[in-house]
Amino acid sequence: MASKPAFRSAFKKRRRLVPTAGYYEWSVSPEDGNKDPWFIHAARPLWEARLWEDASPLLDPDNLGTFAVITGDSSGVSADIHDRMPVWLAPAQAEEWLASDPGAAMAMLLASAAPAMKAYRVSRAVNTPRDNTRELLEPAPQL
Hints:
The strands form two sheets. Strands 1, 2, 3 and 6 form a four-stranded antiparallel β-sheet that branches. This protein has a two-stranded antiparallel ribbon with strand order 4-5. It is built from three helices and six strands. It has 143 residues and is of the alpha+beta class. The longest helix has 10 residues, at 102-111. The protein has a single domain, classed as hypothetical protein yedk fold (Alpha-Beta Complex).
């Protein structure tokens, strides 16, 4: 990401940390071959490393911009579901992550360790963008 044209500038100048409760990931269901969504979370808020762009010639002029979640190899329960996961940084690293030079920022990413997390299957309703309710975080009934 530090050298790819699509991310190079953002990695130098537009890094962010976003607090999240967790994230969704999908795996193929052994029951019916469809993709099952999982909610992966930790006991405390997670701080996701991201990059952002404020404009793009590919976006509508009224669009506020784009962001990219920085991912790395999965570990823990995430590895059982998908091979990639977001890179997490500690809240105490926020100021350094935002202000450091690209070399130091890359070192932070490479040294990051995911917190202990849990995962459970959730409703396939998360696959529909118009669905946006608290119930999407509830465990799905067992089949």
